[in-house]
Specification:
The chain is an all-alpha fold. It is about 70% helix and about 0% strand. It has 3 helices and no strands. Helix 2 packs antiparallel against helix 3. The N and C termini lie far apart (about 50 Å).
Length: about 70
């Protein structure tokens, strides 16, 4: 894996949008450092926001049809 700090600043901003960036940070923290929930909570919030937005859009787009 490439170091996040070695990326150009605009690429880092774009990477912060993707949920996989936060997920990988959480997994690395837990597996490599034995991080607690409090330590990884900084990366849990973006995942929660992404989940709520995508779930909300899914519910709005869902239409039940009886054919």
């Amino acid at each position: 894996m490439f170091p996040f700090d070695g990326m150009p600043r605009p690429a880092q901003w774009i990477a912060e949008i993707f949920p996989l960036t936060h997920f990988v940070r959480i997994i690395r923290g837990i597996l490599l450092r034995g991080a607690t929930l409090g330590e990884v909570s900084r990366d849990l919030w973006p995942l929660l926001v992404f989940f709520l937005v995508t779930m909300g859009l899914s519910v709005l787009r869902f239409r039940k049809r009886l054919d």
